[in-house]
Specification:
The structure holds 2 protein chains of 2 kinds. Chain A is mainly beta. Chain A has strands at residues 5-7, 10-13, 19-24, 31-37, 44-50, 53-56, 65-68, 75-79, 88-95, 105-106, 110-114. Helix content of chain A is 0%, strand content 48%. In chain A, the strands form 2 sheets. In chain A, strands 2, 4, 5, 6, 9, 10 and 11 form a 7-stranded mixed beta sheet that branches. A 4-stranded antiparallel beta sheet of chain A has the order 1-3-8-7, with no helix packed on it. Chain B is mostly beta strands. Chain B is built from no helices and 11 strands. Chain B is globular, with a radius of gyration of 13 Å. Chain B starts with a strand and ends with a strand. Classes of the chains: A mainly beta, B mainly beta. At the A-B interface, strand 5 and strand 10 of A face strand 4, strand 5, strand 9 and strand 10 of B.
Chain lengths: 115, 109
C-alpha cells in the first residue's frame, strides 16, 4: 500500500511570512496527526484528527498555527506568521481507527527553515 | 502530561556487538510502548512495540523489555550491522504518543 505522502519536502521562508503543508494519509486511515520535530528532539504532537474532527489540539499554538481536514482525508497545516523558532521538520502520521493496532505510519516530513 | 526520558543520546558500537537503549516514563496510565527508527531525511518507522500486559517481546535481532513497576523499558539490538545506524526513538502512549529525545546509534564496521 502507498505510504503517507507529504509536500513540499523542503521550504525556506522569511520570518513573518506564511507557509502551508499538505498531507495525504494512507487510504482508509481515519486518524491523522501532525507532529513538530525540532532538530535533536523527538516528535511533538501538534494536532490529532479523527475523520474531519479535532481530537486533540492542546499543543497547537493557535495564535499562528491552524490545521484542517475538511473531507476526512487530506489535511493542511498552516503557519502565519512564521517565527524563527518554527524551524523544524513537520511530520504527518496516520492510523487505522478500527482494530487492535496502535501503530502510526509517518510520512517523510517537510523540513521548514525560517530565516 | 507524560514525560519520556531516553538514554544514551549517542551510542557507538562495533559491528556484531549489542546495543541497548533505555527509557523511563512518568504516567502510570501509559499502556503502549513503541520504538521507532529514523533514517536521515525520512520519517520515523516502527520497528517493534510492546503493550503493558507483556514483559518482553522479540523480533529477530530486536527485543524490547518492559518493567511497569519501575516505569522503565529498553530496546536491545543484537549482532548489530551497519544498516542499524540511525536515530532511535522510544515513545509511551497514555492518551497520546510522547517521544523520547532520541538515540543516535552508529555501528562501526
Amino acid at each position: 500500500e502507498a505510504g503517507v505522502a507529504q509536500s513540499p519536502r523542503y521550504k525556506i521562508i522569511e520570518k513573518r511570512q506564511s507557509v502551508a503543508f499538505w498531507c495525504n494519509p494512507i487510504s482508509g486511515h481515519a486518524t491523522l496527526y501532525w507532529y513538530q520535530q525540532i532538530l535533536g528532539q523527538g516528535p511533538k504532537l501538534l494536532i490529532q484528527f479523527q475523520n474531519n474532527g479535532v481530537v486533540d489540539d492542546s499543543q497547537l499554538p493557535k495564535d499562528r498555527f491552524s490545521a484542517e481536514r475538511l473531507k476526512g482525508v487530506d489535511s493542511t497545516l498552516k503557519i502565519q506568521p512564521a517565527k524563527l523558532e518554527d524551524s523544524a521538520v513537520y511530520l504527518c502520521a496516520s492510523r487505522q481507527l478500527e482494530g487492535p493496532s496502535y501503530e502510526q505510519y509517518f510520512g517523510p516530513g517537510t523540513r521548514l527553515t525560517v530565516t | 502530561g507524560e514525560n519520556v526520558e531516553q538514554h544514551p543520546s549517542t551510542l557507538s558500537v562495533q559491528e556484531g556487538d549489542s546495543a541497548v537503549i533505555k527509557c523511563t516514563y512518568s504516567d502510570s496510565a501509559s499502556n503502549y510502548f513503541p520504538w521507532y527508527k529514523q533514517e536521515l531525511g525520512k520519517g520515523p518507522q516502527l520497528i517493534i512495540d510492546i503493550r503493558s500486559n507483556v514483559g518482553e517481546k522479540k523480533d529477530q535481532r530486536i527485543a524490547v523489555t518492559l518493567n511497569k513497576t519501575a516505569k522503565h523499558f529498553s530496546l536491545h539490538i543484537t549482532e548489530t550491522q551497519p544498516e542499524d545506524s540511525a536515530v532511535y526513538f522510544c515513545a509511551a502512549r497514555a492518551y497520546k504518543l510522547s517521544f523520547g529525545a532520541g538515540t543516535t546509534v552508529t555501528v562501526r564496521a
